[in-house]
Write a structure and sequence with these properties.
Helix content is about 40%, strand content about 15%. By secondary structure, it is of the alpha/beta class.
Length: about 140
């Protein structure tokens, strides 16, 4: 695998540090962003191999809208995304189904979903499955 960059998106600095540490420990290079707009800008400049994206972020560029923008972007759409949130899994997937994509098609579900606080071993397993083994984990 050539691309060793993982984009970590969370509005909480402690969570960005924690996730970046897990990513670095695995031998990947973290790219950090504090919000959706910054995440999309960085991803378009240097496409990551994977994105870890917080669902609940302030401003209009929250995690759900950012997820939608990633999926609707021609270059970034295929990028695997691990959604991370304090909201329950069922609530998150309901929210994804309610988004109205520009294409009129239903948005695909993310490759993985983790509730906060994330367990380092579980995150490691998800990243390994998605990037090294190419196995969907949902």
């Amino acid at each position: 695998m050539e691309n060793r960059k993982i984009l970590v998106v969370d509005d909480e600095s402690d969570m960005r540090i924690y996730l970046s540490t897990v990513v670095e420990t695995m031998g990947f290079e973290p790219i950090v962003a504090a919000n959706g707009a910054e995440a999309l800008e960085k991803a378009r400049a240097i496409p990551p191999a994977l994105v870890i994206l917080d669902v609940m972020m302030p401003n209009i560029e929250d995690g759900l809208r950012t997820y939608q923008q990633f999926r609707e972007d021609e270059g970034l759409g295929p990028t695997p995304i691990i959604m991370l949130s304090a909201i329950a899994r069922k609530t998150f997937f309901h929210s994804i189904r309610m988004l109205k994509p520009l294409s009129g098609k239903q948005l695909p579900e993310p490759e993985a979903y983790m509730e906060k606080p994330p367990d380092a071993a579980e995150l490691n397993r998800l990243i390994t499955s998605l990037l090294l083994l190419h196995v969907p984990v949902l």
